[in-house]
Amino acid sequence: MSSFKMFPGVFYALLAGFLAAVASSSAKLSLGADYLKGVLLCGGLLFTCNAVMWTFLAKALRYSSSSTQTTVTTTASNLVSSAFLGQLIFGEAQITLWWVGISLTFSGLLVLQRVSPQDRQPSAVAKRDE
Q1: How many domains does the chain divide into?
Q2: pLDDT recorded at residue 16
Q3: d(Cα 46, Cα 13) in Å, to the nearest integer?
């Protein structure tokens, strides 16, 4: 598959991850001081972001060469977007240990992505034959 055809999948996966972060920030904002106004406004934003996020995730899965690639990209986008939105909106500071943990999570996801289904299939066949 050409890289041009894979790009829309990556783009949609990045948008899905970002929208998931916006949705979770909206949920956190809805618990603010002005409860009713926060629930209505942020609840609407939460619902809208989730609906659009699922749409983009479905498109990313359609355009990507593998669901693992989409999962890794969406997760990475979500975690990094959550960090930046948390700092921007709530003044949260991520400590170095948080970034180390995220790096380890990304590394594990990338290792899972590198193992293709064809690499795993012969071992399953070999176990069945034994």
Answers
A1: 1
A2: 96
A3: 18
Between 35-63 and 3-29, two packed helices, what is the crossing angle to 10 degrees? 170
- The boundaries of the domain holding residue 12 are 3-129
Spatial distance between the Cα atoms of 15 and 13, rounded to a whole number of angstroms = 5
Q: Give the residue from 100, 94, 70 showing the smallest Cα distance to 82.
A: 94
Separation CA 38–CA 100 (nearest Å): 34
Q: How far apart are CA 13 and CA 65, in angstroms?
A: 12
Q: What would the pLDDT profile of 80-94 be if each residue is shown by its tens digit?
A: 999 999 899 888 888
The pTM score is 0.73
Question: What per-residue confidence (pLDDT) applies to 34?
Answer: 66
